Amino acid sequence: MAGPVSPLAPAAFPALPEIAGVRFASVAAGVRYANRTDVMLAELAEGSAVVGVFTRSSTRSAPVRDCEAKIGAQTSRAAFLVNSGNSNAFTGQAGERSVAEICAAVAQATGIDAARVFTSSTGVIGEPLPHERIVAKLGELNAALEPLGIEGAARAIMTTDTFPKGATETVEIDGKSVKIAGIAKGSGMIAPDMATMLVYIFTDAKHDQPALQALLREITDRTFNCITVDSDTSTSDTLLMAATGASGVDATGNADFAAGLERVMLDLAHQVVRDGEGATKFVEIRVSGAASDADARKVAMATANSPLVKTAIAGEDPNWGRVVMAVGKSGAEADRDRLSIRFGEILVAENGWVSRSYSEEKAAAYMKGQEIVIDINLGLGTGKAVAWTCDLTHRYIDINADYRS
């Protein structure tokens, strides 16, 4: 745990429902720290479709590469095995051997084909994974599997997180209920491509695997790929989703199901930002009036990733000049005399200069809140985008300076 719980954390871990066709277990294996729950196992019933989205890092980890190779259209029993404390990234052939041995051991313990065992690892980069510690606990994990163990699983995957993250939705399809539940970890090294975190989502709906894969990727671009804490993309980003089909309800192509899934994913994405290392402010960057959606995204992310913008927010300083700077450096088309900037409802700048109605006193008061909205209108077209980030405080330095000690 990274010190005190984030001031932006939800009041409590949500009551996640049982998802028929999934069982969970978690255990302390001593991967890096003694007496810390650090491994979780999720067992998926026969007929489960598995889809995933992964980091685009050129130095992505051995578990990520293994999962990428295994994602396919088959539906059968499957398992997710996740450890924290060690990312098994940049570990060469030793990392690949660790993945192979873990998958083989999961297969032996559960009877699930090793080709349907998906592993993830998060933690320190460049140190060999002591996979034998994980293997030694697989019998215990398999024996402890139970349908309501998802909160323990959420805690097992935490690294510098200060709280476990969960979200759920229930969707009605043809008069029948379909449940969706997800957990995530993420606090630092958070930036798009695909947002630097681990996420596991489960539904009892039946869903065509290729269609679900396309849907997951599409929603990821509007959720996890729109958040940033520090602009650093991880080697280990993994989003895995399983549709068990146990409800008997086919959600393929259903708009309500897609909307429910997006709400779960956006909720988890926002929780990751709210747990940004050292965060005290949750910040939404809204961009409109761009020449294109792509240009709007450039402006949103340039603003969200700017250390100068983020430190001004931490200091509760309405330094709108830093937003002007971020727009200018973004690479998007911009015109000084068409640009307008708002902090919340406060018009800060317009027509190439500070607004005549601008009040520094009101803006400073607004910046003291925990929820900050920065609205940027480029005045050029219909392109729009949104990004979510947090402030940058000295606590971020403290956490990362001491991360390996």
From TrEMBL:
Transmembrane segments: none annotated. Its main location: cytoplasm. It is an enzyme of class 2 (transferase). One of its GO terms (molecular function) is L-glutamate N-acetyltransferase activity. The record marks 122-123 as: Involved in the stabilization of negative charge on the oxyanion by the formation of the oxyanion hole. The active site is at 196 (nucleophile). The record marks 195-196 as: Cleavage. Pathway: Amino-acid biosynthesis; L-arginine biosynthesis; N(2)-acetyl-L-ornithine from L-glutamate: step 1/4; Amino-acid biosynthesis; L-arginine biosynthesis; L-ornithine and N-acetyl-L-glutamate from L-glutamate and N(2)-acetyl-L-ornithine (cyclic): step 1/1. Its EC number is 2.3.1.35, 2.3.1.1. Coiled coil: none annotated. Keywords: Acyltransferase, Amino-acid biosynthesis, Arginine biosynthesis, Autocatalytic cleavage, Cytoplasm, Multifunctional enzyme, Transferase. The keyword Cell membrane does not apply. Catalyzes two activities which are involved in the cyclic version of arginine biosynthesis: the synthesis of N-acetylglutamate from glutamate and acetyl-CoA as the acetyl donor, and of ornithine by transacetylation between N(2)-acetylornithine and glutamate. Heterotetramer of two alpha and two beta chains. This is Arginine biosynthesis bifunctional protein ArgJ. It comes from Limimaricola soesokkakensis. The lineage of its organism: Bacteria, Pseudomonadati, Pseudomonadota, Alphaproteobacteria, Rhodobacterales.
